[in-house]
Amino acid sequence: MESSAKELIRGAGKQGILLAALAKQIGKDETIVLELINSLSKNGHLRKIKESHDGVETIRVIWQEQEETEWDTLQGCPCFICPDINQCGAGQPTNPWMCKKLDYWIQQPKK
Question: Are residues 41 and 8 in the same domain?
Fold first, then answer.
């Protein structure tokens, strides 16, 4: 299932694929596919974006090639000044995997 998911996500290109469509193509329940996506996103190859379609929340999954980045500082990391840091974590409404501020900071070139 993992290799099928990776192939489908890569094949979707820059626009990515909705979780529901991915689950349907793999033939598995969305909950199972979301667990797989969460696992795969930890290595940095996947980006998850929350979207709303007709009032229904969904997730778009986009494949991104791992860029070689050398970090020698955490200067500017939004986590250090985040008012929600005490409630941030896995299974929480605020979490690093869905944080737009953290995503933006990570994607910026480091000096």
Answer: yes
What does the pLDDT look like over 19-72, one tens digit per residue?
999 999 999 998 899 888 888 887 777 888 888 878 888 899 998 866 555 566
User: Is 73 found in the same domain as 31?
Assistant: no
| Percentage of the chain exceeding pLDDT 90 | 25
Verdict on whether the full-model pTM lies above 0.70: no
- Overall number of domains in the chain: 2
| Domain housing 110 | 68-111
Question: Facing residues of 52 across strands?
Answer: 57
Q: CA 26 to CA 33: how far, in whole Å?
A: 8
How far CA 4 is from CA of 15, 37, 40, 44, 106, in Å, comes to 18, 12, 12, 18, 28
Q: Are 11 and 25 in contact (CB under 8 A)?
A: no
Across 66-95, b (16+ Cβ under 10 Å) vs e yields: eeeeeeeeeeeeeeeeeeeeeeeeeeeeee
In terms of domains, do 4 and 31 share one? yes
